[in-house]
Amino acid sequence: MEILNNFFNILNMENAWATKLLTFPLIFVEISLSLHIFISVLKIDIPKYKKIIYIIAVSLFSIISSIVIPEPYNIFINYTFIFLILKLYFLFTVLQSILAIILPFATFGLVNSLILNPFLKIFNTTYEAFFITPVFRLTYLFITYIIIAIIVLLLKNAHFKIHPNFTFDPKTNTILLISLILGILTLVIQTFMTVYYYSTIPVVFTLFNFLLLFAYFFTSIYSLTRVIKLNIATRNLENAESYNNSLTILYDNVRGFKHDFDNMVNIIGGYIQVNDINGLKNYYNSLQKDCSKVKNVQMLNPNIINNPGIYNLIVSKYKKASDLNVSINFEFFFDFNKLHMPIYEFSRVLGILLDNAIESAEECEDKEVNLIFRESRKHQVQIIIIENTYLNRNIDTSKIYEKGISGKKNHTGIGLWEVNKIITNYNNIVLKTSKDDKYFKQELQIYY
Fold first, then answer.
1. Is 381 helix (H, G, I), strand (E, B) or coil?
2. Of 101, 95, 280, which Cα lies nearest the Cα of 169?
3. Are 389 and 356 contacting, i.e. CB atoms less than 8 angstroms apart?
4. How many Å apart are CA 279 and CA 366, to the nearest integer?
5. CATH for the stretch 300-447
6. Which residues of 239-259 are buried (b: 16+ CB within 10 A; e: fewer)?
7. Interhelix angle for 48-68 vs 73-84, to 10°?
8. Is the pLDDT of residue 61 over 80?
9. Domain regions of the chain by residue span
10. pLDDT, mean of residues 310-334
11. b/e string for 379-394 if b means 16 or more Cβ within 10 A?
12. Is the pTM of this model over 0.90?
């Protein structure tokens, strides 16, 4: 009985350290709710084990920082740590990472702006006393988490969403980030006013302030979704234009085949009449190469290459190769929308490697490039293989990634150096280079 009395006394006494110790376990709840807020809005699919690791890592870091670093500096350190985890561990884009931080911050801020002032007036206490009294803090956090949990359930069941693979041009990114930062500053200032002037601010004013802040953030997020939809529509139009280009190439090839079909049949008949099997084999091999061109163009389909950015890149490189009489053979066993590497940097790497392969093959008598995308779910790796015919058999594969080293004339050797610089930023990506008597081979392995 005495123990219970002592415990209740601790709960009702003003004690900053007791309040901290009793609220530490609730940090795990808060981080879990924050995680579910941004994955519910952004509609990002994260494996369960990654969620657990994120919650434990961020919660423990927050607890340690709150002990070691004085407030409010520990808050900035915590958000920096969260940003790094989102960017490096979840491989979010910069905008996605910032949104994943801002969305929970704004949600908790809005709820606090709604209930803090009424709470302090109902319990007839000051903010300073509320902050260091366990019973006030625990009661307040319980109410806050209940409201946030209800919001999370509503977000999960809502049709409203932000497309998970959104990316923008730098100018749009800058405008959106400025808008979001201004919104957060507004929320911080409003929270500051509520805390320091709660005694003079009527509860009705608090409610009105909450409604204004809610309207601002709702319209901001709604505007963001509209911008994303417009961005996606623009990309789809670009995708359709590239698809039309590939259809034009396919049509020209088929029309050429149709025009030459009678001649082909007559030539095959001529070989058969004189029983020239070797000549027929040679002619068939030549014919097969032309057939493979049509087959390859058929593979340039946005339903197969289901990422507009990568599709446009591959179509443009195919056109470049065709202009140089270089044949590109494709194999796609890949969901491009589940690429475990940021699209922007992947596109840079793929573009440089394809340019090098096409330019190298163009120098050969047998002008050939093979582009293969495949995935091994068993080993959790996505593999991109680019191999091409080449002339320089003496090329040193161990030195080609050094700055200024190039196996081609009049080239600066910057491309592969840039590729190496990008890849070294990721611990889940490996680029293997090899060669044999026919092909120079680059194999990009992306682990997940």
1. strand
2. 95
3. no
4. 20
5. 3.30.565.10
6. beebbebbeebbeebeeeeee
7. 160
8. yes
9. 2-233, 300-447
10. 86
11. eebbbbbbbbbbeeee
12. no
